[in-house]
């Protein structure tokens, strides 16, 4: 039996009197690639930010790798969750190599030498071996996002979360980042990806989750979601984006 890496039950999140998540149930098993789609404002970012505790949920349960997350328990599970942001969030005053090595030194107690060896290996894997001494500002957006992916991998997380990783990129750079993500998906890493790239969802996802209005409205295999959508909200969303 594979135990879920992420288990969410009845998760509620409010911002003041506005409720962004209305009782979300979602579980993700080891090695699974889950792609979350849905209109802007449907709660996709809030959902994944609750998983890694950038937001604290107000109700329901979230268990990550067997550890309940929430009040006062933040640290334990957070280290097991890697995050790739839309806006890269690299440290501009640190080299690419340092950006990737920093987390393992701070959180995993590696020496700088060990962490830099790991960082070099991961930067080679995302095709950036020639850029390790540069600063983020000297790289293209696509290259910066590949650094972001290497940085997340350096923590050897149990699950990688991506929040619209290609939305801030010029169109010609989207492909190189999606290619890296697709390669990664083949290695057995567990991934939860929020994206508007429907081609990626179709090709790479094991399961596609459609959110609307703070709820999971429909989920299924890519062929089910794209070829036989049932809910009218999903149908009109797909009509608008495809
Ligand atoms: P998505 O990622 O699907 O576009 P979000 O999860 O960012 O949607 O947002 C869901 C809803 O919650 C939106 O209506 C948004 O305005 C609201 N929201 C998100 N973050 C905050 C916040 N920090 N304060 C108030 N409202 C928020
Ligand atoms: Mg979002």
UniProtKB/TrEMBL annotation:
CDD domains: ABC_HisP_GlnQ. Keywords: ATP-binding, Hydrolase, Nucleotide-binding, Transport. Pfam families: ABC_tran (PF00005). Residues 6-238 form the ABC transporter domain. GO terms for molecular function: ABC-type amino acid transporter activity; ATP binding; ATP hydrolysis activity. SUPFAM superfamilies: P-loop containing nucleoside triphosphate hydrolases. InterPro entries: AAA+_ATPase, ABC_ATPase_HisP-typ, ABC_transporter-like_ATP-bd, ABC_transporter-like_CS, MetN_ABC_transporter-like, P-loop_NTPase. It comes from the Bacteria. Gene3D superfamilies: P-loop containing nucleotide triphosphate hydrolases. Its EC number is 3.6.3.-. Belongs to the ABC transporter superfamily. PANTHER family: AMINO ACID IMPORT ATP-BINDING PROTEIN, PHOSPHONATES IMPORT ATP-BINDING PROTEIN PHNC. This is Polar amino acid transport system ATP-binding protein/general L-amino acid transport system ATP-binding protein.
């Amino acid at each position: 039996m594979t135990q879920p890496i992420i288990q969410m039950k009845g998760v509620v999140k409010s911002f003041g009197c506005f409720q962004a998540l209305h009782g979300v149930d979602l579980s993700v098993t080891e090695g699974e690639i889950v792609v979350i789609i849905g209109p802007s404002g449907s709660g996709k970012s809030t959902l994944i930010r609750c998983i890694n505790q950038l937001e604290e949920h107000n109700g329901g349960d979230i268990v990550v790798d067997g550890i309940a997350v929430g009040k006062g328990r933040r640290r334990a599970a957070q280290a097991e969750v890697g995050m790739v942001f839309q806006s890269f969030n690299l440290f501009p005053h640190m080299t690419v190599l340092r950006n990737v090595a920093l987390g393992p030194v701070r959180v995993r107690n590696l020496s700088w030498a060990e962490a830099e060896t790991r960082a070099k290996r991961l930067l080679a894997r995302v095709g950036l071996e020639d850029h390790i001494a540069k600063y983020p500002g000297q790289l293209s957006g696509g290259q910066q996002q590949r650094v972001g992916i290497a940085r997340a991998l350096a923590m050897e997380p149990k699950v990688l979360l991506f929040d619209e990783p290609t939305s801030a990129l010029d169109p010609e750079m989207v492909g190189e980042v999606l290619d890296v993500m697709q390669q990664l998906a083949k290695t057995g890493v567990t991934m939860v990806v929020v994206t508007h790239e429907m081609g990626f969802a179709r090709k790479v996802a094991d399961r596609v989750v459609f959110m609307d209005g703070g709820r999971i409205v429909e989920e299924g295999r890519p062929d089910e979601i794209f070829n036989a959508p049932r809910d009218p909200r999903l149908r009109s969303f797909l009509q608008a984006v495809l």
